[in-house]
Amino acid sequence: MKYFKITPSRTAARYEIIAEVFQKVTENKQPFEQKNQRGRFARYGICPSCLNPIQLIGLYSESGRRPYGRHTGKNIDGLPEWNEDKRQQWLLEIAEKLMPPLEID
Question: DSSP per residue over 12-33, as a string?
Fold first, then answer.
């Protein structure tokens, strides 16, 4: 995904996943930046659609690839509790947008 939120609300502002924007809106503070199980810093946000925690991938990478958000599938300290039902609903909404309606004769 291209966007993240810092407040778990449908009406909250969403931000593009870019290092400069992340730094400005989060000030690199907890819970948006924290050490993971490997002792490395990981960056997090909130999914704009299902309001679950997402990890921001490639935010400071020099690979030339665009950074993106990926659902964590688990709770992240300080962020909304992971809710699989909300994620499944989000996936259904995406599928409905992508699939053409069935024509029944």
Answer: S--EE--HHHHHHHHTT-TTTE
Amino acid residing at 37: Q
**Local mean pLDDT, 10-residue blocks, the chain (105 residues):** 95 96 96 92 95 95 91 95 89 75 66
At 50, list the tokens.
Answer: 């299902």
Q: Residue 96: enclosing H or E segment and its boundaries? A: helix 84-98
pTM for the predicted model, two decimal places: 0.84
CA–CA dist 79, 31 (Å, integer): 7
Under DSSP, the state recorded for 10 is T
